[in-house]
Amino acid sequence: MLMALNKAAVVMEGEVNPDGSRVNKWKLVSIQEVEEVKCLARVFPIWAAGILGFTSMAQQGTFTVSQAMKMDRHLGPNFQIPAGSLGVISFITIGVWVPFYDRIMVPALRRVTKHEGGITLLQRIGIGMVFSVLSMVAAGLVEKVRRETANANPSPLGIAPMSVLWLVPQLVLMGLCEAFNVIGQIEFFNRQFPENMRSIANALFSCSFAGASYVSSALVTTVHHTTGTHSHPDWLTNDINSGRLDYFYYLVAGIGVLNFIYFLFVAQRYHYKGISVLPQDVELASKGELGHYTAAKCEDST
Description:
This protein is mainly alpha-helical. The protein has helices at residues 31-58, 63-69, 88-113, 121-152, 168-192, 198-227, 245-268, 279-286, and strands at residues 71-72, 160-163, 272-274, 299-301. It has a two-stranded parallel ribbon with strand order 1-2. Strands 3-4 form a two-stranded antiparallel sheet. Helix 1 packs parallel to helix 6 (198-227). Its main location: membrane. Keywords: Membrane, Transmembrane, Transmembrane helix.
């Protein structure tokens, strides 16, 4: 379908000045401009899947802290873990996993798959999405136990007699999600765009995070307005012992599963960029019917 865009670079009578410049840049474009549009069109479905993939990450700095505030954060008699510092566990996971992956996993996978990177970039992103779903499921299970424990053992501050270290599994899984998904997307965008579009590639990745924040905010607002009744607080009420934060985690996990199915659909139809020139373009160029503005083509290759 994207082949139709090539017609925009076909020179028609009266569209080129005697000096070779274009009469109207909106009617005749260069090959480079056509290929840039093609790259954006190919990458857009993958980029859209990344937005929902990052939505689960947006919960880490908010509701995970809320959970920690209602758990026993003591390590020994004199030290209490700050609730907001638990996110460092994800960063430690990334710092440990990435060198292990690059130095040990990639060479081992390369011998099996015969692929330079061990696995493809889209496979790496997909694995990250799986870890994000697992992280939300783990968070929901821990929250269910934490809430039941807190309600069974009421205290003035509503703190459950349950160690905050129970939050470590979900944070480790989220760290693995970031190690695969975030790094995979950065590499994917930078490799699939031409050299002159690297700034757009980086901007798209940043827009994924921004979009995920908006989706997360919309989701939280929707849950607030649809799950509460006159006799029961909503899932995300300020007192999480009275709410159902575990249901919210399961909801995010379910959205992640649907997003992963969509990602598999578009990833199976994606072909990685190769530097090539189509035979029909060569024929048009030999006839002088294709614009002389040249560039490395962003074409499909297997």
